[in-house]
Amino acid sequence: MKQSIRETLPPTWDDTWVHQTLEQIWESSRSLREAKNKKGASSNA
Q: Cα dist. 45→34, 41, 42 in Å?
């Protein structure tokens, strides 16, 4: 996924904001998943 995004971008952009944006998306989605997991675990217990 990361590689295909890179291939569509100009080489000057490279990793800078692309990498940061992907990291932000990953972090936010991970925190959402963790929140869901905590809710599910507490309701199952």
A: 16, 6, 5
